[in-house]
Amino acid sequence: MKKRIKFHGFLIFLSVIFIAVFPDYFLSRGHTGLKGALLNLLCGFFILWGYFIRISARGLKSELNPDGKTLVSAGPYKVMRNPMYFGTFLIGAGLTLMLFRWWVVLGFLIVYLAIYLPLIAGEERVLLVRFKEDFKSYCGRTSRFFPRNLAFGLPVKPEWIREELLSSLTPLAAMIFAIRAWADFKFFGSVRLQGILLILIVLSSWFLVFMVLTRLTTGKNGISTKG
Asked: Domain residues of the chain, as ranges?
């Protein structure tokens, strides 16, 4: 796990260096007009939905499976076997669509599949050995990656959100604003505050929407009432 985190961190660091040095090849000039606004809304939705899925999946796993001996099948795990990886995919897709040229999206998909497909296959082999028939049965009623049913509950607790805000969501938002500001400076000679403000409004609005939805679908004990 630690090696994988270090490797991913190195890839992100390397990507940031290339983006800073060669912005013309990687960064978009910003999405304008109605089409641009709708695209930013879609990207913001992907990013925040991905985060809430990761928050719910990580929180449930830490509470229901602290020792790795329990097969978690509640919340997002009820409809897909790898919700944290799916959340990561949504975040990455939203980020690349919002800030980068279209070819970068294709590059993201290739790199993502090259990293996570072997990782998922290896982890599922371990789970099959550990849980045997229970895991086979679980696989029969869930998909490996994409949720079979989009109307699934996301049990979320305030402490889970606070932890994610401090550990990754706030740094990611700062990175988004920095990349957009750098792109504006390179392409237009100054930072276009309206573009950064629009991204801030989009992310904040979707964050409030997801907060309301999770409150509506979560019981008092933080476990989803949808099952």
From this structure: 31-146+157-216
